[in-house]
Design goal:
alpha+beta; two-stranded antiparallel ribbon; 2 helices; about 20% strand; binds zinc ion
Length: about 70
């Protein structure tokens, strides 16, 4: 399923050097770590993140369905 927020970017900060990287949510759904420009591998805790995104997607689609019902 394509999520509503897939193209949104969130900023990840490397804990080692402080370098900031923008990653799209679509990318974050498939990856749990990335390699910073400094060579440090940053592990991203995506578990809670994915739950939150799924809830946001669901809330949006629920809202759309509610609006459709109101217009019928
Ligand atoms: Zn770094």
């Amino acid at each position: 399923m394509v999520g509503l927020f897939d193209n949104c970017e969130i900023q990840i900060t490397c804990p080692k050097c402080g370098h900031k990287t923008d990653k799209r949510i679509r990318w974050l759904k498939r990856n749990s770590k990335y390699t910073c420009v400094c060579g440090n591998t940053v592990n991203i805790d995506t578990k809670q993140f994915k739950i939150t995104i799924a809830e946001m997607d669901k809330a949006y689609f629920d809202l759309q369905n509610t609006i459709k019902i109101l217009h019928e």
